[in-house]
Amino acid sequence: MVKSYETVWEIFNECANNQMRDVFIDEIDLDEEKLEEFLRGKIRDRNAVFECVSRENGTVIYEINASGIRQRYSFTEI
Asked: pLDDT digit string (tens) for 21-40?
């Protein structure tokens, strides 16, 4: 079933003197069953590790480690 999501993609900076992170916000329409497939298309590291957590409010959060860079991608249904 296709749903509308607000997405937040956070890329964490590993530099000791820079604690900022890159944050990208978007809205997408996507089948709930294809969230990880969508992410694998964005994160092109074949060895990336994805950990998924679903919250009670329906938000789906993926913690990602790709090439040693920590990232977080959140899907919140609109």
From this structure: 799 999 999 998 999 999 99
